[in-house]
Design a protein that fits this description.
The complex is a heterodimer of chains A (295) and B (217).
Chain A: H1 6-13, E1 25-26, E2 33-38, E3 41-46, E4 49-54, E5 57-62, E6 65-67, E7 71-75, E8 80-85, E9 88-93, H2 95-107, E10 108-111, E11 121-125, H3 129-143, E12 148-149, E13 157-161, H4 163-171, H5 190-204, E14 205-208, E15 217-222, H6 225-239, E16 243-247, E17 260-264, H7 267-273, H8 279-291
Antiparallel strand pairs in A: 1-5, 2-3, 3-4, 4-5, 6-7, 7-8, 8-9, 10-11, 11-13, 12-13, 14-15, 15-17, 16-17
Helix pairs in contact in A: 2-3, 2-5, 7-8
Chain B: E1 3-6, H1 12-25, E2 32-41, E3 46-54, H2 57-71, E4 75-84, H3 101-119, H4 121-130, E5 133-137, E6 140-147, E7 153-159, H5 162-174, E8 178-184, E9 191-198, E10 202-209, E11 215-216
Parallel strand pairs in B: 5-10
Antiparallel strand pairs in B: 1-4, 2-3, 2-4, 3-7, 6-7, 6-8, 9-10
Classes of the chains: A alpha+beta (295), B alpha+beta (217).
């Protein structure tokens, strides 16, 4: 190996601390001070940053870390974090990446043209300019690329062509096919889950103040039943929010796909824990909270 | 169900793709093409589709353009084109005027309520014991028939409140032609309760057909 400490070489070779779990190196004591331990993992800080060691082997060296009582979180590239807890290590989304995925699943599209084409287009379109602005902002935070404003028939739209971002979004399930998407559950901590839900809801959610028999109604609508089922589980497991999934009954019209409606049963909890970025939703959620004496 | 356009594509491609597909797929035995746009009005969460018809591939672009103009302002999820050897059925035996709809909805909800009470003993007991009024939430499927010089249009909308779904259907229709009547899907077979809530005076029940898949937690 060349000159310099092994830590510096590791930094240089593995993208400034990006962990390489399969290529984990043996730990070398650079004189860092141990600052936290979670299960088999130990974290020490030194001149080069934070060193994460598992079972005597270095997992990675990181410039930034956030040590909390139950976990430590290290910053990786393209909107990813490495979360270390007593039960192990996993990669999770940053808030921006979770939001980007939620928005992509609702109103975004990934297009790579006919077979053999070199088009890798990422597009987000909405009737709400606040959502296209948010999408651009999150995209830049995650991929360090600016999107282009490209309104069409009065709809704000942001577009960019980028192969790396295209596959990164696709591989984590932001769009898995025509009309289909997945909740990237394995990569969401509680904050990420809330952000994913908030962003998806901002796009494909509704807050109604006129509904059958009740004063208000909060619901998600989609043609992707599987995705709505995943949202249902996420809402319950992470936030204890109950919901009911039902089909949209309709007369079979040639060429029409079935649709599904996921109605939130714990509206107040949803308004407080999840919420929305869409202006109209925010106003209506406020009304619901006021009605319930929570404001 | 050939989908020729979906949300996120440029809008001008919607009509162009319809025409391209129609010219490529139309055979001598084809009598008609049905062009459908499906979408959702997101303030009130009303799902809808608008269908227009073309007797030749050259007419599809014009129909698709008018469908797009009517649907702008909502989220248009996709556009599909279906070709058939016979004319698509598009008229119903029973068509209502606007002023008849409220009564029809009331009767429909009564029918759902009666069937629910008939088949659900615990709900029947709950209503009997508390003396509260049963309120049924049942998705209404309203079809609006529109006449225009070039083609008839069918607008299908779904929501559980007539006062929400009717104005929206009329708004879409106003951009396409003249409303000639409405149909309300009123078949109720075996409704089941999927959600029950209660306040001081009411028991609110959300119901769907047993044959429709649902899940709740």
């Amino acid at each position: 190996m060349g000159a310099g400490s092994r830590v510096r070489q590791f930094n240089h070779r593995f993208y400034q601390g990006e962990p390489s779990l399969s290529d984990a190196m043996e730990s070398c004591n650079e004189g860092g001070e141990s600052i936290a331990a979670f299960g088999e993992c130990q974290i020490s800080s030194g001149a080069d940053g934070y060193e994460l060691v598992k079972g005597g082997r270095i997992v990675g060296i990181f410039e930034e870390a956030c040590i909390e009582s139950e976990r430590a979180v290290f910053k990786l590239s393209t909107g990813m974090l490495l979360e270390v807890t007593g039960s192990g290590i996993r990669e999770i989304f940053t808030k921006a990446k979770a939001g980007l995925h939620g928005l992509t699943a609702s109103d975004g599209s990934l297009y790579n043209g006919p077979p053999g084409s070199r088009t890798y287009r990422i597009c987000f379109e909405s009737e709400s300019p606040e959502l296209t602005d948010l999408y651009s902002q999150y995209f830049e935070a995650v991929y360090d690329r600016q999107m282009h404003q490209y309104p069409d028939r009065g709809y704000p739209r942001v577009v960019v062509g980028n192969k790396m971002a295209f596959y990164d979004l696709k591989n984590y399930g932001a769009k898995t096919g025509l009309y289909t998407w997945n909740v990237p559950r394995a990569y969401l901590d509680r904050e990420g889950a809330a952000e994913w839900l908030k962003c998806f809801f901002s796009g494909d959610g509704t807050v109604k103040l006129v509904c059958a028999g009740k004063d208000y109604d909060i619901a998600f609508d989609s043609t992707c039943r599987e995705g709505l089922e995943q949202i249902q589980v996420l809402l319950l497991d992470e936030f204890g929010i109950r919901s009911t999934l039902k089909p949209r009954p309709r007369e079979a019209r040639p060429g029409r796909r079935p649709g599904y409606n996921l109605r939130v049963r714990d509206e107040v909890e949803f308004a407080e824990e999840i919420g929305s970025y869409k202006k109209e939703h925010i106003e209506r959620l406020e009304k619901i909270l006021k009605k319930k004496g929570r404001r | 169900m050939p989908v020729v356009w979906e949300w996120g594509s440029e809008f001008y491609l919607l009509a162009e793709n319809c025409e391209k597909y129609a010219f490529a797929a139309w055979r001598e035995n084809i009598a008609e093409g049905a062009i459908l746009v499906d979408g959702i009005e997101r303030n009130e969460g009303i799902t809808y589709s608008i269908t227009g018809y073309a007797k030749s591939p050259g007419l599809t672009k014009g129909v698709a353009t008018r469908l797009l103009s009517a649907a702008l302002g909502t989220k248009i999820r996709y556009c599909s084109v279906e070709l058939a050897e016979q004319e698509f059925p598009r008229q119903t035996d029973v068509m209502y005027r606007e002023e008849q709809l409220a009564k029809r909805v009331e009767l429909l909800l009564q029918k759902v309520g009666s069937k629910l009470l008939e088949g659900d003993e615990s709900l029947r007991n709950r209503v009997g014991q508390t003396g509260k009024q049963l309120e049924v939430d049942w998705t209404l499927s309203l079809t609006c028939y529109v006449r225009s010089p070039e083609t008839p249009y069918l607008i299908d909308c779904e929501d559980s409140v007539l006062d929400v779904v009717l104005p929206f259907a009329k708004k879409l229709a106003s951009k396409l032609g003249e409303v000639i009547g409405y149909a309300l899907y009123d078949r109720v077979e075996d409704p089941i309760t999927i959600d029950v809530e209660e306040d001081e005076g009411h028991i609110y029940v959300t119901a769907i057909e047993r044959s429709e898949p649902e899940s709740g937690n």
